[in-house]
Specification:
alpha/beta, Rossmann fold, TIM Barrel, 2 domains, 6-stranded mixed beta sheet, 4-stranded parallel beta sheet, disordered N terminus
Length: 531
């Protein structure tokens, strides 16, 4: 390991302190005698500082007296930590949090910029230990596996307490460290893996660790509010969604615990952002919202379930200042919603729309996907008709209400019933997106979507194996042209990962991971869908 416990300043590293001077809550520790860990979010500060996972890990690590944890984000050159402005080579551990496949390119960029050997096999005792966790790593770590010494499978609150004593111990050689790490639950060490699946770790009682903002800044996407996790996991079982398998079972923070955390947050912000896959599904939501309002809190929620949608919840949100509500029908036709196991009807969606407009909320955001399995032109026509009907119902109640849609391509995710299915062809995605825009844009419906071409790159990385690592390492620039050139040079059949339906009886690239959901169950759900 490249750290001797004495604390040091890297070459050219200064101790000028925090770059973002408007922050509240950042932890600056003396390095002497402490294990220095850099937590790295491979995207911008603006995006990363709205990620509750980064805040939770930062708070968890800095709660240990013998650990100093500092933050690093993508984009700064040279790559330095925020707290002490040190180089990555000065840290004992580099801990990446990876939640989005297209950030894989930034992982490579950060390692290259820092001067640390890209491949784990090329590092020795002089280099930091490079580890990673996050939703993408838990689902399918294989495209990044050759670059990491170890990968944490599951929730950090369960993995880190076992990991830190090993990282802090004086094991001697790098191989001894890696061998010791490979023996831990939830830790995948690619160079020392023995073949047994690594079981995902998950926290039983969410109240043991409250995930909320640890450092507050205005320089972030959600900087005007104090974010708090309300729940983790989801029980609805949508067949395209990773949350139900990678974060199961569903768990909730207690109302009392959330109210106490809200008291703290309201010292810094007037609005509370309640975060979870389906916030309205919290069993105590009708008790929680009035108690938060009595504290004087403005409210914002990340998600509501179309049905059931409590009138009491909507009333409290309206009183709490919510003016925009987000609902996720995901598909426009009842047939497709049944196929993806989104069991809501058009009547449910329209009733929710009327309920939202009737409470003075001025904007309705709807989330849809395009390119879902078995999708037809008729499904797209039903989607646009549904959106226009929602707009019509909003306008009946309150003139000037806005309806917008976020629509993104279906990308198959490891660990879901749809993991064996392909994406739609790019030309088909473009044709259907054009039809949606033609039908809705002239009616004043705002449409947002990610790049269709980049979504196919995301699909390749989502279902990829370790062959993808060679492509990532080969890329000379982060662009579609750079991707295609690297794929061609590595002779990789990208279409196999993007456009081919796989045999459910064959081993999957991520079979090294045990999410706790059997392949047989997932295959059974796929069979039901396609039937």
């Amino acid at each position: 390991m490249g750290w001797n416990g004495a604390g040091k300043v890297g070459r050219g590293g200064s101790r000028h302190g925090l770059k973002h001077t408007g922050e509240q809550g950042a932890v600056v520790k003396d390095w002497g005698g402490r294990l220095p860990v850099a937590i790295i979010y491979p995207n911008s500060y603006y995006i990363g500082m709205s990620n509750l996972g980064i805040h939770a890990i930062y708070s968890l690590l800095n709660a240990y007296n013998d650990v100093v944890c500092e933050r690093v984000f993508f984009g700064d050159k040279p790559v330095l930590s925020l707290e002490s402005r040190r180089r990555l080579s000065d840290f004992a551990v580099l801990a990446f949090s990876v939640s989005y496949e297209l950030d894989y390119f930034n992982v490579i960029g950060i390692l290259r910029e820092s001067g640390i050997p890209l491949y784990a096999a090329d590092r020795d005792w002089r280099h930091p230990l490079v580890i990673a966790g996050g939703a993408c790593i838990t689902a399918n770590p294989m495209p990044l596996a050759p670059f990491f010494d170890c990968l944490c499978i599951g929730e950090a609150e369960m993995v880190l307490p076992g990991l830190l004593p090993v990282l802090s111990a004086s094991c001697g050689s790098r191989s001894e460290y890696l061998t010791a790490l490979a023996s831990l639950s939830g830790v995948y060490v690619p160079l020392y893996h023995k073949g047994n699946p690594v079981a995902r770790q998950w926290l039983r009682n969410l109240d043991d660790f409250i995930a909320s903002y640890a450092v507050l800044t205005r320089d972030t996407e959600l900087g005007d509010m104090y974010l708090m996790e309300v729940e983790r996991g989801c029980s609805w079982g949508c067949r395209f969604c990773l949350v139900g398998s990678a974060f199961c079972p569903i768990r909730y923070h207690s109302v009392d615990c959330l109210v106490e955390r809200a008291r703290l947050g309201l010292k810094y912000r007037k609005r509370l952002g309640l975060v979870g896959p389906v916030v309205s599904a919290h069993p105590g939501i009708e008790e929680l919202l009035p108690r938060l309002r009595k504290l004087g809190a403005g409210l914002s929620v990340s998600s509501l379930r179309v049905s059931p949608l409590s009138n009491t919840v909507l009333d409290e949100l309206a009183k709490g200042g919510v003016r925009t509500v987000t609902l996720a029908p995901e598909a426009g036709s009842h047939r497709l919603r049944r196929l993806i196991r989104k069991n809501i009807s058009q009547d449910d969606i329209l009733k929710a729309t009327v309920a939202v407009a009737g409470r003075g909320m001025k904007q309705l955001k709807l989330y849809f996907m395009v390119g879902l399995p078995t999708e037809t032109d008729e499904d797209i026509e039903e989607m646009t008709a549904l959106v226009l009907e929602c707009k019509k119902e909003m306008d009946k109640i309150r003139h000037g209400c806005r309806v917008s849609i976020n629509i993104n391509p279906f990308v198959p995710k490891a660990g879901t019933p749809f993991q064996w299915l392909p994406m739609a062809e790019l030309v088909e995605l473009k044709r259907r997106m054009a039809a949606i825009k033609k039908a809705l844009a002239p009616k004043g419906i705002a449409i947002r979507s990610d790049s269709l071409a980049w979504s196919q790159v995301q699909g390749a990385l989502s279902r990829g194996n370790t062959d993808m690592a060679e492509v990532l390492a080969e890329m000379k620039e982060v662009s579609l042209a750079g991707w295609r050139a690297a794929v061609a040079k590595c002779r990789l059949d990208a279409d196999y990962y993007i456009l081919k339906q796989w045999d459910v009886n064959k081993s999957l690239p991520w079979s090294v991971i045990d999410l706790g959901v059997s392949p047989e169950h997932l295959a059974g759900e796929l069979k039901k869908a396609l039937a």
